[in-house]
Write a structure and sequence with these properties.
globular, mainly alpha, 7 helices
Amino acid sequence: MQWHRSDRASQRLATIPGVGPITASAIAASVPDASLFRSGRQFAAWLGLTPREHSSGGKDRKLGISKQGDAYLRRLLVVGATAVLRYSRKQSATNSWAARMLMRKRPKIVAVALANKTARIAWALLSRNESYIARPA
């Protein structure tokens, strides 16, 4: 907790919904330089949060997540995303992205998709040295 309070990158990451001090400090410690990744998608793929491809004969098939990369960070992001989903259910925000996804998909799949989105936001904050600003609903 003391390291989290002293590190600016960790404090900026903790402003993202679903990312607490433990997740923020773990990401900041694991990724000291965000310029190692070209995009947020590459960062999410490094964490193993992108769909695994199983394509053949011109047919593009996407299976579950690849699960390659840091399992600890991936687990922290998915747990944080699950907490955000539970909170959004209580508020019954029908206009939010997660609430619309929950109408079509299983909660576990939506949690992983939200973790992927959170990882991309985290990369953007680290690469641009900005804080998270929530868009109005």
